[in-house]
Amino acid sequence: MSSNVPRPATASTATQDGAAAVPVPRSMPGLPGAFHDGWVVTLRNLRRMTRIPELVVFATIQPIMFVLLFAFVFGGAIPVAGGGGTHAYREYLLPGIFTQTLAFTTGTTAVGLADDLHKGLVDRFRSLPMARSAVLLGRTVADWIQNLFVLLIMSLCGLAVGWRIHDGFFPAVAAFLLLMLFAYAMSWIGALIGLSVSTPETANTAGFIWLFPVTFVSNAFVPTSALPGWLQPIAEWNPISSTVLALRQLFGNPTGYAPGQIPDVLPMQYPGWVSFGWSLVILGLFVPLAVRKYRSVSA
């Protein structure tokens, strides 16, 4: 006798021998379902990081190496406006190292997604009743959480070599939040790159090579006033430069400019707001591009 009781929506999967299909519950509908599925994929990526010790080791060694290399090799070689010698340059340097290192995790996201595509994991995800955006959301959030660990290691290492926060707790929290927002925005560029190449090896090259000029044509290591005149406007409007200068001001570290000598351009006068705006622009541009690319490669 048939029943009129409604059944929950399901997706069916049939066995290879033609047996009856096994009902598989669909994911939660709408935005809550997308966030739930994204968190499940995030946990999967985080578990994978713990099962591959090399990922954790290199994620720890690289920021320590950057801090120590630049602090002790270049610490006394580059003067900073306002004096202070080696100690002043180390405080000037650390916000630049923070921003550069987290921007470089763009390549990590690119390689991770390219590896998932290459191994057919995305095809397996496609057969499951889950939101299409969950794979990208899970990858970028997992990398963001890893970035928190990297930032903690760099901060402790920076404190060990003489970097200090001078302007109090709340400005420092604002600086770290601004930096992590920028890092998350950059990871979506890596997501698009990872979906656009054919192998993890190509993603490794494509995800990093463009970051070197972007990070070095900035105020991360030297003030923009020390660059050639034709290059200064490019460096000043570089998102890296506004983020780095905002961190220096919020931490109370040397900015590299004498009092009243900060360039009279929008990104240098209001670096915090400009950095925040750059992050929103990058997210607004690359999130839909990455989602569209994912739909095309997983179709």
Concise account of the structure shown:
By secondary structure, this protein is mainly alpha-helical. The chain contains 12 helices and 2 strands; from the N terminus they run ββαααααααααααα.
Describe the protein.
This protein has helices spanning 30-51, 53-73, 85-118, 121-126, 134-161, 169-196, 200-208, 211-216, 232-236, 239-251, 266-269, 271-297; strands spanning 10-13, 22-25. The chain is globular and about 60 Å long. The protein is mostly helical. Helix content is 68%, strand content 3%. A two-stranded antiparallel ribbon has the order 1-2.
What general form does the structure show? Answer: globular
Distance between the termini: 41 Å
Roughly how many Å is the radius of gyration?
A: 23 Å
Percent helix range = 55-70%
Strand order in space, largest sheet: 1-2
| Uncertain stretches | 1-26
- Could you say which structural class the secondary elements and strand pairing correspond to? mainly alpha
The profile of the biggest β sheet is:
2 strands, antiparallel
**Mean pLDDT across every amino acid position:** 81
Please count the beta strands (DSSP E, at least 2 residues each): 2
Number of helices: 12
Encode the helix/strand succession as letters: EEHHHHHHHHHHHH
Strand content: under 5%
